[in-house]
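Q: Study each token:
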Amino acid sequence: MLSNIRIVLVATTHPGNIGAAARAMKNMGLSDLALVTPKIFPSDEASARASGADDILESARVFDDLDAAVADCHRVIGASARLRTIAWPQLTPRESAELAMGDAGRHKTAIVFGREHAGLTNEELERCHFLLHIPCNPDFSSLNVAAAVQVITYELFQATRAGAPPNTAKEQEPLATGEQMESFHKHLVQTLFDVGFLHERKSSPSLTRKLRRIFNRALLEQSEIHMLRGILTAVQHRLGTRDVPRGS
């Protein structure tokens, strides 16, 4: 079950944190590590901090952006010490583990950790279905990224031992992957431009962010994505426009 859980580190500055995260993963039985634009990797310091988890480092994949790192994942959980202006569905480490393990045999989950100094950007958080917040001392609430990885991997390991309750909400159809969701979001934004709901100079980024939140929260199935994109395409055909995504 843990083989379907991916730990993603975004723009890690200190290679020692990559090694410590790899060690935490191996301690708790995880093996899928993805790195998004790490400042230094591979590194002797990462290997030293891994303390025997060299196989995790050797199999780690490096990506140019977060979209590529989670493209094949059905659920994305972003860790953040800061609560955001636009509320995201929020989970504790234990809730995140129970959710991820509830159907880990069928769906792949990515748990994303941001930069040491700034965490995840709002744009990166837009790619996430849930926000993972680790409760800490409010006067000193920022955890080291490797320590945060240790907390969540421990909860994942405990969930396997306890036998997490099955997630039956989406048993019939596979969930949409990150790549499918991103393609849908771009198609949606393009269509909203086409019908005049969005305008080049007047559209607020917070509006498209809220739209992302609505559809991410729904945990759409692949068949539902196909249906929604079919509706968008029909609208574009009626307008005589082409599906050339402008992004969001």
